[in-house]
Amino acid sequence: MPRVGLMVTCLNDALFPDTGKAVVTLLRRLGVDVEFPAAQTCCGQPMVNTGYLADAVPLVRNHLEAFDGCDAIIVPSGSCAGSVRHQHGLVAERSGDPGLVRGVENAPPAYELTEYLVDVLGVTDVGAYFPHRVTYHPTCHSLRMLGVGDRPARLLRAVRGLTLLDLPGAAECCGFGGTFAVKNAETSIAMGNDKAHHVRTTGAEVLVAGDNSCLTHIGGLLSRQRSGVRVMHLAEILASTERVVERRDERSADPISIGSATPQNQEAHR
């Protein structure tokens, strides 16, 4: 059986652990032997995006060591999957270290979660149940850098009880952009407000995406607007079953809160 490693990402590890747990639950339900290499850390994307490629070299080396021996790497984030696939090679090349270049070239393939489910496992119906109206935000890196296309929508349409609603302006950026939200806060908020407005027009109960970074940004704005729209990572929906939904509804009286995307987390990172 292939040995698959979960690259949970810094944000999920620190703030949204339920997303990582959902990925493990989902993959194991589908018969995948998934492991969590404890030595993993940041992929280096923040450094690369701000121009500090040399500072990302130790992180790329650590990534190669942590996932050595895996047949594939699964990433519940289009942003971080894109970093591994497209930025690690650039970091290695700029480092001037031929060994690091070879290491990146021979590294296990990194898949964004929906790519692995649809393209490698060949499934769209993962046995999920989620009886809610949902709209999907295709994050920039998954849409433009990875080209995941309609894979997330195909997976969502196969979820029993789920009604998938079209999101106006879906391809428009939400404005988070990592350090962009810090350096250009006013522009970031304006873009986020546009996205939040589009979400509210759909009548959806839940906004779903494949990146918790975007959900933190949009979810914070939706919470401030008291929209009643919850935010949730795609993996948590796909891992849901009748029993999971019942337990979650029992413990969550707040309409903004679901899974790990709590109002407290959203407030702290707005």
TrEMBL record:
Domain of life the protein comes from: Bacteria
Residues in Cysteine-rich domain copies: 6-84, 134-218
GO cellular component terms listed in the entry, alphabetical order: cytosol
UniProt feature, compositional bias: Polar residues: 259-270
Region described as Disordered: spans on this chain: 245-270
InterPro entries referenced in this protein's UniProt entry, alphabetically: Cys_rich_dom (IPR004017)
Listed transmembrane segments: none
Pfam families, per database record: CCG
The name this protein goes by in its record: L-lactate dehydrogenase complex protein LldE
Originating species: Pseudonocardia ammonioxydans
Biological classification of the source: Bacteria, Bacillati, Actinomycetota, Actinomycetes, Pseudonocardiales
